[in-house]
Amino acid sequence: MTYIPRRDYRFEYLWDAMSYLEDNQCSTCKFAEPGEYPMCVEVASVFMAEEPVEVVDDNGDEGIECRKYESF
Q1: Domain assignment present for 72
Q2: Which of 48, 68, 60 has its CA nearest to residue 8?
Q3: Buried b vs exposed e over 44-65: b needs ≥16 C-beta within 10 Å?
Q4: At what angle do helices 41-48 and 14-24 cross, to 10 degrees?
Q5: Any domain includes 69
Q6: Which residues have C-beta within 8 Å of that of residue 70, sequence separation ≥ 6?
Q7: Are residues 17 and 59 in contact, defined by beta-carbon separation less than 8 angstroms?
Q8: Is the pTM of this model over 0.85?
């Protein structure tokens, strides 16, 4: 299921959801922006617009997961 950024029982703020992905996937993803932000611009810009993030799956209690992720 596509992730829609919003406050819920897991993430109180938008930044909490973004940090969750950065800590669990983005920091080891080849699409991350080196020396800038750990999250790639494509995903971060959609998060910041608070639009549905098509490449991020909402797995309920197991958190959110980016399908674009590729390890470097």
Answers
A1: no
A2: 60
A3: bebbeeeeebeebbbeeeeebb
A4: 160
A5: no
A6: 29, 30, 31
A7: no
A8: yes
From CA 40, how far away is CA 27, in angstroms rounded? 10
- Domain residues for the domain of 32 are 2-59
According to DSSP, the residues that pair with 3 across neighbouring strands are 53
Q: End-to-end CA distance of the chain, in Å? A: 26
Domain annotation covers residue 66: no
The 10s digit of each residue's pLDDT in 26-42 is 989 998 877 777 899 89
Q: Using CA atoms, how far apart are residues 46 and 31, in angstroms rounded to an integer?
A: 15
The alpha helices in 1-72, defined as continuous H runs, are 14-24, 41-48
Cα distance between residue 58 and residue 70, in whole Å: 18
Look at the chain and report how many structural domains it folds into.
1
* Dist CA 54 CA 28 (whole Å): 20
pLDDT tens-digit readout, 49-68? 999 999 999 999 999 999 99
